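Build the 3D complex.
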Amino acid sequence: KAGVTQTPRYLIKTRGQQVTLSCSPISGHRSVSWYQQTPGQGLQFLFEYFSETQRNKGNFPGRFSGRQFSNSRSEMNVSTLELGDSALYLCASSSGQRNEQFFGPGTRLTVL
Amino acid sequence: GIQVEQSPPDLILQEGANSTLRCNFSDSVNNLQWFHQNPWGQLINLFYIPSGTKQNGRLSATTVATERYSLLYISSSQTTDSGVYFCAPSAAGKSTFGDGTTLTVKP
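Done.
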């Protein structure tokens, strides 16, 4: 089985721009969760989508949004980028039943 | 939400030594996972262990859910074991990560 894939792997943006990151889960997995990892805040939960519906949400501002498509692929969008949004963004897929999560390689976003 | 505390924050070992990493959590959880993050940022699954004990080669883990802690044992450590180890208990569909233990294994 192919693992979780994330695109792009690296991204450089400037303040004020917006960005869209993509995550393709393991085949058959219906849940996708997004996390932000920074040196100062560690790994923080952004949101989880299951069957195209947001099922859980962390404590991030509305600039962070996501969606999930019928094939379970998910995208997250960050609008009006700030310097503090520079981070490694990780997505994880699970079957949605056992909640055992499998992570993708991440997208490293740098905001200048 | 769940509070997660991992100890020690940093650990330096000589190759061949054994170690125990601890994860304390504040509330009841449905499950718990241990991960190893490699230098490229990839989180690698080690154990899915809501309770009990599991072993996989030189690694083993024990979760005592009633006492709200989990332990990860690494025996005969190798330089390739270096990296950050995270525990992530989960409740109500949300996983909370600890700050991790940074392990350095010296040859």
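Chain B touches chain A through 22 residues (CB under 8 Å).
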